[in-house]
């Protein structure tokens, strides 16, 4: 909750007080934001798919965290790994928890 108020406060200061950008920046750039978001999302999906197929993360039980089938479309839709990681960096937690939830406040 605090991060939401900080984000709104910084947006207000940047748009109205310091006049760094127009307050309608999201409305003005909506189409390019959607296209960029979709391209990034498909890139993440295919990266996680190939990473899960060829270099799966190790789950808490010590076994690979993989749930794969022979159906490529099903694997792309459901995902192969439960929590895809690069080293200790959890992609799922970062993309859903940080980027996704914080950006919803501005939409």
What does this 3D model show about the protein?
The mean pLDDT is 86. A two-stranded antiparallel ribbon has the order 1-2. The chain is mostly helical and 107 residues long. It has one domain. The chain is elongated. It is built from 5 helices and 2 strands, in the order ααααββα. A hairpin with a 2-residue loop joins strand 1 and strand 2.
Q: How many β-strands, per DSSP?
A: 2
- Beta-strand content estimate: under 5%
Largest sheet properties: 2 strands, antiparallel
Radius of gyration: 18 Å
Helix content range: 55-70%
Number of helices: 5
**N-to-C CA distance:** 16 Å
Task: Give me the secondary-structure category.
Answer: mainly alpha
Shape: elongated
Compute the average pLDDT.
86
Low-confidence stretches: none
Encode the helix/strand succession as letters: HHHHEEH
Number of domains: 1
Strand order of the largest sheet: 1-2
Summed up:
With 107 residues, this protein is mainly alpha-helical.
How are the elements arranged and paired?
Elements: H1 2-17, H2 25-28, H3 30-54, H4 72-78, E1 85-86, E2 89-90, H5 91-104
Antiparallel strand pairs: 1-2
Structure characteristics:
107 residues, mainly alpha, two-stranded antiparallel ribbon, 5 helices, elongated
């Amino acid at each position: 909750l605090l991060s939401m108020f900080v984000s709104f406060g910084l947006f207000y200061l940047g748009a109205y007080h310091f006049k760094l950008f127009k307050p309608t920046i999201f409305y003005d750039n909506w189409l390019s934001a959607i296209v960029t978001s979709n391209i990034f999302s498909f890139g993440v999906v295919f990266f996680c798919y190939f990473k899960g197929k060829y270099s799966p993360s190790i789950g808490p039980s010590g076994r690979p965290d993989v749930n794969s089938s022979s159906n490529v479309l099903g694997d792309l839709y459901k995902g192969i790994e439960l929590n895809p990681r690069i080293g200790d960096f959890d992609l799922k937690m970062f993309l859903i928890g940080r980027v996704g939830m914080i950006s919803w406040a501005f939409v």
